[in-house]
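Subject: Sanity check before I submit

Could someone independently write out the C-alpha cells for this chain? I want to compare against mine line by line before I put it in a report. The sequence has 356 residues.
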Amino acid sequence: MLNGALHHLWLPQTVCAACYEDVVLATPFSEAFQSSPIPQPADERWNCKLTAFTQRLMEIFSGSSDSRDWHYVAAAVNASVRVPDYDGPESVVGAERNWWRPKQAVGDMIACEHCYYLYFAASFMEDDWEPVDEEDMVAADGMTTWICDMTLLPMKLAHLKAMRGISSRIFGDAARTIMSSPPCPLNEQYEGVWHGLAPYGNYGGTCARCFAGIIVPFGFQNHFTQLSLPANLKFTCIFNARTPLFSQTMDKLDEAICKQTLPRIQSIMALTRMRLQQHQMLMMSGLMLQGLDYTVTAVQGPGHDRYGFASIGYNYATMSGVQGAQQYHQGMNMNVVNGGDVVLVAQLEQMWKEVE
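---
Independent answer below. Compare away.
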C-alpha cells in the first residue's frame, strides 16, 4: 500500500502498488505518494481506496502542477472515504447519511452519498445532481427510511453505457422508464410492459426496467418484441439478480472472461517487464563501459589507436568502449512496449469491462 501525503494533508493506505502504477504515475500527483511505513499484518485485509471518483478527480487535474490542486483532490478524497457504504437494496434510515437527486426530477429517484461519489461526482453528470434536503424528503412522502435507486442493476448498466458514450441523455432516458415501471418480478404477477425475444417472444422475458436500462442502451431493442401478458400468471425477468440461474450465469461469465483475458494479459505484462529489465541493463552497462572508455581516452591523449564499427563510429580507445556503445544503441533502439500488445491488452480489458 502507498500513502498520499503533501504538507498537512494525509491519505493513509490509499492505493495499492498496481493501481499506483496504472493510474497515479500518469498524473502530477505521483510525487505526493510514498510507501506505507506500516507493513500489512498477515491477519489483516486492506482495500485499495483508489475509487472511480478518485481516478476521475486525478484525471481532471492531470495537467496541473499547482500544489493547491492536490489540496483540493486530497480533501475531496478524504471526504469521500468517510462516507458510509451502502450495500442495498435494503432500506436505511435516511437521516443517517446524505442523499442526492437529479436537478430535473426523475420520478422519486434518489442516490445515497456513497453512490453519488461512485457514479456521478467529478464526472460530466455531476452538475445534473443536487443534495436532498431531509425535511423536503420526509414532507414529500412521509418516509423515514430510503432506498438508493443506484443499487438497481439496470440503473448501473445504463450509467455504464452513458459514461462510455459521454451522454447524460442515455442515463436520463433509462432512469425515467426505470423509475416509472414496476419492480423487476421474481415469480410474481407483473403489470408493466413485458418484452421477449423476437419474433414470438417465447424466450428472454424482460421487464420494463431491465429493458430500458440493459437492452435499449446497448442497442439490442430491435431483437425484442413487446408482449401482452395474461392475467393471474407469475413471471420472472431473466435479469433478476435473485434468481439462481442469473447467479450461475454470472459466475460462468466471470470464470470464462477470466480464462480468456487474465492469462494473456499476465503473459504480455511479464514479457514487457523482461524487455524493460533488458533495456535498463543494456543502457546502464553501455553507459558504464563508455564512461570507462572516456577515462582511458583522456589519459591516453591523441595519437593512439581507435576502435569501432561503421554503425557507431571509430572514436573508442578500447574494445570495451565499442561494446558499451553497441549495448547503448541496442538499448535505445529496443522496443520495450510493443504496439500490438498495447492494442491487445486494450481489447482484453474491454472484454473484461463488458462482463463487469
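---
OP: Matches mine. For the report I'm noting this point. The longest strand covers residues 9-15.
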